[in-house]
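G., the chain you wanted modeled:
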Amino acid sequence: MSDVRRLSTILFAAAFSCFVAQAAEAVRGAYPILTTPYLADGAVDYEALVKEAEWTDAAGVNGIIWPQSDDSIDLLTVEEKKRGMSALAEKAGTFKARLCLGVQGRNTAEML
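Predicted structure as tokens:
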């Protein structure tokens, strides 16, 4: 291996290590998963979802995660998930906590 390539490899490894350390520090703390609230007719209560996020943020958590639990993954349509994500994202600028939006699927195409 040439000296230039060896130096490049060492610099890349050092930079990557710094990135990993910063990323790990960024996600420390409490990150509760919100539970999806429903109306009596079975529709998602997006207003209550946002209020749940606001309450969780006010409690002093480091981050808020949605959708991630079984009630959000298996029961919601893609459109319901997108609508909930949009409702939360509109309020995220007022949160002290990070908003983490989950995506799941059996394959990459489903997740996208």
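The longest strand covers residues 63-66.

Shout if anything looks off.
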